[in-house]
Amino acid sequence: MSEATPATPPAPQLILQPRESLFGRFGKVLLVLLGICVISMIGMASQVQQYFGDGEGPREKYHSLSKEAGNKIAVVHVSGAIMEGDTFVEDQLEAIEKDPTVKAVVLRIDSPGGTVTYSDRLYHKVKELREERDLPMVVSMGSLCASGGYYLAMAVGDQENAIYAEPTTWTGSIGVVIPSYNFSRTMNITGMQDLSVVSGDLKLMGSPTKPRTEKEAEVLQELVDISFEGFKEIVRAGRPALAADEETMTKVTTGQIFTAKQAVELGLVDTLGFLEAAIDRAMQLANLSPSTVRCVEYEQRQTPIQQFLNATSHQPPAASGVDLRALIELSTPRAYYLSTMAPVLLRSN
């Protein structure tokens, strides 16, 4: 039997890769360095803008009425929780203060309220602008104008027919809340302990890691009562009819939310109407006509880094989650003029 002839091995294959030129390697390095420089310049520009400001404030844009008129009615938007760290409302007020062509203001409020301190700060800012410039002001309530939002609405003063609510608006919730939670039983189950070292018995007042003592409850209630009295004084100043009717005043300051129709009947709101009706009323108070005034509103300017990120990303901004700062704020006793059925997990930014 003859032996099989061995198969001829395949010829070796040579793969030749083109040698990268010196210019190609240099070009890649140059592109990387250029990218680093661009990002660094954007970051520095953003820091400079944040420190010195851009000198222009929010961007003004046309809303309605005459496009050629020089006189303006400014719509100031107050949206979302009224919290420290969000300066957009103050930026709008500052833009109006610097603009002598603004002859009237409409406060467009769609807010559940916010912290006692910042609600009061914005109230005084608006009131100061109204008095210094002698500007007619009208409130237009959005879907919700409650608690600190209503507190801010009182800044328009006791002008006649100056507070408008849409037919589906909810308003009221006049009151104060200091959110407080007790997680001590959960901690006992998990074996966690609070080993904080404190300087006094009340230093951990409001901490969620332990049950509240009777003394702590008394102190917190006193803080709420003081802030509540301040809220009621603001309402009395803005709604003289309520100040003269103590029975109704008591009824509207229980923390209850009211429909727009109920709010009109109780004297919290002057009339039902949409934003356009409030603009017409502001125009009337300023003795202007549709052909002689332009209605404007404002939008926030973005920092260079925000513009860069928005231009390079197609993803929508992530929803604000509960971060370390939010958890710290949660464990810190703080008073709110706020209408909510959820735990206070609001971030300041």
From TrEMBL:
Gene3D superfamilies xref list: 2-enoyl-CoA Hydratase, Chain A, domain 1, 6.20.330.10
Ranges annotated as spanning the membrane: 29-48
EC number: 3.4.21.-
Keyword Hydrolase recorded: yes
Claim: Nucleus is one of the keywords in the record: no
One record GO biological process: proteolysis
InterPro entries: ClpP/crotonase-like_dom_sf, Pept_S49_SppA, Peptidase_S49, S49_SppA_C
Residues in Peptidase S49 domain copies: 133-288
NCBIfam families recorded: SppA_dom (TIGR00706)
Family indicated by similarity: Belongs to the peptidase S49 family.
PANTHER family according to UniProt: PEPTIDASE S49, PROTEASE SOHB-RELATED
Full protein name: Putative signal peptide peptidase SppA
UniProt organism field: Botrimarina colliarenosi
